[in-house]
Amino acid sequence: MNIFNLCWLKRKVLILFSFFVILTGLIFYGGRSYAADALSLKMLIKNALKNPDITSSALKAEGRKEEIAIAKALPEPVAGIGLTDANGFNNPGIGVNGMSYIGFSISQKIPFPSKLGTKSQINKYSYMSSKAKTRALKINTAYLVKETYYNLALLEKQIIVVKYNRLLLNIILKDISQKYGTGSASAPAYIRTMLEDASLKSELFSLNKAKAELIYLLGELTGLKVSYIKSSRAELPKISEEKKGAKTGMSPKDKLNEKEDIKTAYKFNPELKSLKYLAKKSDYETAYAKESYLPDFYLKAGYGDRYSMVPILSASVGLSLPVYFNSYQKPLINKAEKDRLASIYDISWEKLRIIKNIKVYAKDMRLNKNNYRLYESLYVPEAKLLFKAETASFEVKRSSAFPLLDSFRKLIDSEFKRDTYNAKYYIDKSRLEQVMGKIQ
Q: Which residues fall in a coiled-coil region (predicted)?
């Protein structure tokens, strides 16, 4: 065997060994979970639920809770002091003239008995609506964390795939460069390989940029340091396998039942609950507006000190008169009834939105799950077999590097699409949980 053939054999063995190391590493990364470096999604959500916006909303809701007791309280009483002088201020006759005295009084407004209870109910449902909105803010924040996390996990997998791809391409590039130097490879082959490498380099830059943006977004949502998030790895869970004999195409864990999901959303969706509380509030506001026709009571008691003479005692009861009903009571009732009708339409619209979202997200979940299974069971294994076949063909010089490169890119694209469908499935699942009022 001459020196040239020996060198070629060594290079061929090195190239083949590198191919299989890269492929093995790619498959190894795609299927292995790095528990030690895993970034916990539950921990991220837990931290995100402590953010200042949610804390502020919760405190505002608790502040409105105090308004329930405030509404039940009577207005503050009014105390007064006065002087009555029958002889004129220049000649006081207190103690001499029976009509002159120093008077002390106290008065109290007492609303019609049902008014305080109705106003308290208005504040109660206002508080419950605010509390439901705080819950909605928590659920929306948790969804943003989930969406960002799954997109970050997808990007991290894609970055590793591109890095392995570039490593393989560099090996092929060295081989083609040597062949080009000896005249056994054409210039277009060398140029195409260079362009492929430049394309992968640009793609890697874009992926890293997108990853950095997601890391900073996670830091903003959770309040965690960016350095901590960078040091850990977001994990993209695989779609759970279907149980044998299942008729639905869904595993028991991820089984979709749109009717049950809609019932659950009607019961637990915080946006809908908030609107229902506002509707109840409108009912009591309408009742309170109608109660404005009812009179309020004014009680007053007085004491007059005439020094040596017998003191004067007085008491009185007053009633408010709704004489300005055209400018106060009627407009107040009309406003309350319109608000009540608007709240009914708001609830109907929210229910329609819930139905539409559940149907769309459930459909997208099924579609993404089916596509994931198609790539996992068919396209990715097919691409792996093609790559192995092209590797064997390249080994015996039956084909050039281009079919090998194309087969590897097909494998990369297949795994990209499989992982993308996997991530989309969990993002849609998070959206479905958001509509159903679930945080985790």
A: none
